[in-house]
Amino acid sequence: MKKSIVWLASYPKSGNTWARIFLSNYLVNAKEPIPINQAHRLVLIDCNSKTYHIAAGKNIDVQDIELTLSLRDKVLRGIIANNADINLVKTHNIRKAVRGVPMIPDDYTRSAVYILRNPLDMVLSYARHYGHTIEQAVAAISNPDNANAPTDETVAQFLGTWSDHVNSWTSGAHYPVLVLKYEDLLADPKMHFARLIEHFGLPVDEERLDRAIRFSSIRELSKQEETSGFIERPEQSDKFFGKGTSGQWKSELSQDLVKYLRREHRDVMERYGYYK
Hints:
By secondary structure, the protein is an alpha/beta fold. The chain has one domain: Rossmann fold (3-Layer(aba) Sandwich). The protein has helices at residues 16-28, 49-56, 65-80, 119-130, 134-140, 162-170, 182-187, 189-199, 206-215, 218-228, 249-252, 255-264, 266-271; strands at 5-10, 44-45, 87-91, 97-98, 101-102, 109-116, 147-148, 157-158, 177-181. It is globular and about 50 Å long.
C-alpha cells in the first residue's frame, strides 16, 4: 500500500478547521460555498469513533483507551487501503508514540501540513472551546499529559504541551512538512493558502484560490454555523467559530498568565516570533 496520508495537523484552535474547509472548497471548485458539515467528506478526521467501530467489527467502548490505541494501526491501514495517491487526514495528535503505539506512523505518511498559532491567542480560543477558565486552559496547554477525553463521536486525542506538540511535528520527520502560521494566513491568505495548494503538487488557479478563500472566510463560516449549526461544535461551547483574529491576548490575557506562558514555552515562541 502507498504512503498516502497527508496530515493536516495542529494543536486545537490553531486554524486547522479553517484550512480544511478552504481545501475542500478549492478541491471541489464549486460555485457556492461547501456546507461546513460536509467538509469531513474530503478531509478525514483521525479520531472519528465510527472508524474505530468499523476496524473492530463491532461497536466498542471508546472510553477504553487501551482498546482504541490497539485499533489505531488498523484504522490508518483502512484509510490507505484505497491505494489513492493522497488521503487528507486531520489530526490534533502529537507526533510520537503513546503507550507504545505510534500516533503518526512514517510507513503510512506521504507528507504533513502543520498549522501553528501564537499560544497567547490560541489559549483564549482553547478556553472558550472546551469550557475552561483561561487559567485552566493555560495549565492544560502546559501539561505534558494534556489530552482530549473520548466522546461518543471521537476517541481520545493525545496533545502534550503546546511546545512539545509543535516540536514533534516541525522537526525530525522523514517526509516533507509545510509549516504555516495562523497569523500569516490572516495577513496574506493568497500567498500562504497558495503555499498549501503547492504542497500537494497542484497548480494554483488564482480565480479558484480567491473563491476558496472567500468561501472559507470566518464571516462565511460563522454565518453557516448560525444557520445550520456545526457538527464539530462541542456541547460546552456556544459556537465553534470565534472572531478569527490575532492579538486578542493583549486585552484579554493577564500579565501573570502572559509571563507564565512565555516562561514555559519560550524556546518555541522565540523560534516562531511569538515571544516579543
